[in-house]
Design a protein that fits this description.
Elements (H helix, E strand, L loop, with lengths): L5 H6 L2 H31 L4 H24 L5 H32 L1
Length: about 110
């Protein structure tokens, strides 16, 4: 009988490792499902189940709204915002220079 070490487990093939990972994931899913079913049974025995379901629905709706707001709205690109500021500043400056040129021309005409 030999004792398995960490080195032995690293030396295993990829197939063995994949099987171990899947088995661990299945065990985790089974224990989580068992815990969830116990919780559901406990909730079904309560007298305020309808109120709990309504509260849960409101909570999930609010969470869904927040998730959509967070992930659905794409913020504007940083460089695009900077370019818009530059264009606005340039148009503002050209508007001011046109106004000062017109006032100079009207003084010269008068």
């Amino acid at each position: 009988m030999s004792v398995k070490t960490d080195r032995d487990s690293r030396d295993r093939g990829g197939d063995d490792r994949a099987v171990l990972l899947v088995a661990g994931l299945a065990d985790l899913a089974a224990s989580t499902l068992g815990s969830a079913l116990g919780t559901v049974r406990g909730l079904l025995r309560r007298s305020d189940t309808v109120q709990l379901v309504e509260d849960a629905e409101r909570e999930l709706t609010a969470r869904g709204r927040l998730a959509l707001d967070r992930y659905a709205t794409v913020p504007p690109a940083h460089l695009e915002v900077l370019a818009q500021h530059v264009l606005a500043r340039q148009s503002q400056q050209s508007g001011q220079s046109r106004q000062s040129g017109q006032s100079r021309q009207s003084r010269d005409d008068g």
